[in-house]
Every structure is written in structure tokens, then in C-alpha cells.
Amino acid sequence: MSSPEERRSVVTGIGVIAPNGVSTETFWKATVEGISVLDRVTREGCEHLPLKVAGEVRGFDPADLIEERYLVQTDRFTHFAMAAANLALDDARLGRADYNDSPFAVGVVTAAGSGGGEFGQRELQRLWGQGSRHVGPYQSIAWFYAASTGQISIRGGFKGPCGVVASDEAGGLDALAHAARTIRRGTDAVVVGAAEAPLAPYSVVCQLGYDDLSKLDDPARAYRPFTSGACGFVPAEGGAMLIVEEEEAAEGRGASVRAVLAGHAATFTGASLWEESRDGLAHAIRGALEDARCAPEEIDVVFADALGVPAADRAEALALADALGRHASQVPVTAPKTGTGRAYCGAPVLDTAAAVLAMEHGVVPPTPNVVDVCHDLDVVTGRARPAELRTTLVLSRGLMGSNAAMVLRKGSGSPS
């Protein structure tokens, strides 16, 4: 077995359930075409709330991918995660035959920031409206942040190291880093990612306390980071799951190495302290570059956090300048999430999925709804830009103060 220093973590499978596509293929097609699917909120019970625009996952029937016995135990956020895990496993061609003899070699890690609000709200309504006997037995587990990890592990028979990163948005990247550390310590594969479902009435009400939430009712103007019209972000459902494997193990079973998780670093600078996030994010970028043994000028594209709050956007642009030097104004920057909304912990995992696909296809996807960039950044707008992409930087910040950066390298193989 390789030494810990030699055990590289590679991406072999991608599964996406997102507002712009309920498969990886449809997600990428909409992403590379710069299609915005932001629209008026239609979820039942949200009509009278101040949040008017979001990224909803439509056309998704969990029963198509998940057995009924799991559906009744779980919230919508776990439905997304389980469905995305199915797609990722199929994409990686990782089946039970590959790990039946060694189930402890496969682990599961997810990140979650909101938990199962829809399930919890429904059961509490039954408690107060009908009495305790009408509360289902799964209320105790379905809302919990770790529910997706547990259900994916149980359903797949994965008995290796399992965990959950209960965090803000940056937790999606932290979960990927946790998976890489797990592989470094000896695990062969990890099903890892994040999916969120923050558009139930209870969950929306909790978010209304965020000053950074956009309240505009025009989908084309509600989320426009790096512009003079930036007025906050819009939330979204969905997310992505990846199959991350030890490189030799993946190659040994004939899997395609789509990307390498090359480096990661994280910092904390405090809730909504966007000016302070400049130093914290720059420190995370430098740490990720050092971890990846990557020079700033090697970065071929940046997938930005792109919060859409003027102070936060300015801090991110300055952090890139601090960490990348003159290269910061030359490297292409993109934020495909402006077309889907921010799916909290799911957002940076979706960006990671898009980054892998961008490297494979040699194209930088555009930033929907953004035109008048007012920062010294080369933000890709309008249409996709062809480019040779070997190394990608993915950034994420959370409303509660977390900052994370991840460096990805292009893999040696490509999906057939």
C-alpha cells in the first residue's frame, strides 16, 4: 500500500441534482450555455414571505431513484443527496462487486448547513395540530444534519469512515478535504458532497434574518455579484456528490481519473465581517496553493464565491489580488451559481463538479446575469470561453465566517 504522502485523492464520479439539471449532463449543458433558471419562489407556504426569487429543483421525482422505505424516513435534502450519490456511483462505475469483500474500504462524508427543515416543519405541525401520537418515528433523525451521510452509508453498505461537516457554505469544500484526508489515512474511496433543501417555509423564515439575502423580485437582477447592482444572494436547492478514490485503487479497477484534489485550506473570520474576509480568504488561497505545491500563475481559472454583497465582492477581489498577485487580473473568473442560486453547502460542491467538467471540456462557463463588472477581475460573462484548463481554484465563504479554497488538477483520464 502507498505511504500517506503518496496516496492521492482523485475524482472518478460526479452526480448532480441542481436547479438547472437533475443529472450531470443536463447540469453541464445549462452551465456551459450560461442559462439562468432563477425564478419566482413557488414552494407551498412561501408565497407571502419576503424572499421572492430562488433556484428551485423542478422535475425531480425521488421515487425514480430511491426506494420507498428510504423516502419515508428522510427529508428532501437527503433525497437530493441520495439521488446524486446514485448518479455519482454509476458514473464512477463503482458497484457492490467492487467492495463486497472490503466494505470498510468505502466511507461517506457530507456537509449540511440547514438540515431537514421541511420534514421537521411537517411533523411539528402535526404535534401542535393533532397531538404527539401523530408525529412519525423518523422525526428524530430526518431533520438531523448527519441524515444524508447515514442513509447513503446504510443504503450502499459502506462501512468505512463516515462523517458530516455541519457548517456554512464553505463546509462543502471542507467535506471534500475531509474525504481526501480519510483516503490519505488508508480508505480506498469516499462518497462525498453536499445537498441542501432550504426552501420550505420554516427554513426560509430562518434565512430572512440574513442581511445579505436578496429581496428583489426580478430574477434577472436579484443575484448579480461583482456588479454595481449587487444586492445580495438568492438561495437554492440541490447539490452534488462525488466519488473520490485513492488514485492507485481507482486505476487498479479501471476507473477514469477525472481530476485530482490537489490542495485545500480553510480559515475563519467571523459572521458577515466581509472586510476581514479579505485576509482570511487570501490566507486560505495561499494555504491551498502551498498544499498543492502550485504557483499562483499555474491557476487557469477561478470559480469564485461571488456572494453578491458589495463589501464581500470587493473583499474577494482583493483577496485574489493578495494571493495571486498580478495574475489575479489576468486569470478567468467565473461564478455559474448566479444562474442557479447558492445552495449553501451544496454550492461549492456544484462549483467543484463544474470545475472538473470545465477542465475536461476545455471551456470556462459564463456567469449568468452579470454584465457590468466593477472590479479588477476578468469575469467571464455572456458566453463560455474556450481555454486550456489544467489547474482550477474553487473558493467558498460562509455567512457565519468560514473561508475555504481548493485547488484541482486535471485528471489523466476522461469519461467515455
From TrEMBL:
<protein>
    <submittedName>
        <fullName>Putative polyketide beta-ketoacyl synthase 2</fullName>
    </submittedName>
</protein>
<dbReference type="GO" id="GO:0006633">
    <property type="term" value="P:fatty acid biosynthetic process"/>
</dbReference>
<feature type="domain" description="Ketosynthase family 3 (KS3)">
    <location>
        <begin position="6"/>
        <end position="410"/>
    </location>
</feature>
<dbReference type="InterPro" id="IPR014031">
    <property type="entry name" value="Ketoacyl_synth_C"/>
</dbReference>
<dbReference type="InterPro" id="IPR020841">
    <property type="entry name" value="PKS_Beta-ketoAc_synthase_dom"/>
</dbReference>
<dbReference type="InterPro" id="IPR016039">
    <property type="entry name" value="Thiolase-like"/>
</dbReference>
<keyword id="KW-0012">Acyltransferase</keyword>
<dbReference type="InterPro" id="IPR000794">
    <property type="entry name" value="Beta-ketoacyl_synthase"/>
</dbReference>
<dbReference type="GO" id="GO:0004315">
    <property type="term" value="F:3-oxoacyl-[acyl-carrier-protein] synthase activity"/>
</dbReference>
<dbReference type="Pfam" id="PF02801">
    <property type="entry name" value="Ketoacyl-synt_C"/>
</dbReference>
<comment type="similarity">
    <text>Belongs to the thiolase-like superfamily. Beta-ketoacyl-ACP synthases family.</text>
</comment>
<dbReference type="InterPro" id="IPR014030">
    <property type="entry name" value="Ketoacyl_synth_N"/>
</dbReference>
<keyword id="KW-0808">Transferase</keyword>
<dbReference type="Pfam" id="PF00109">
    <property type="entry name" value="ketoacyl-synt"/>
</dbReference>
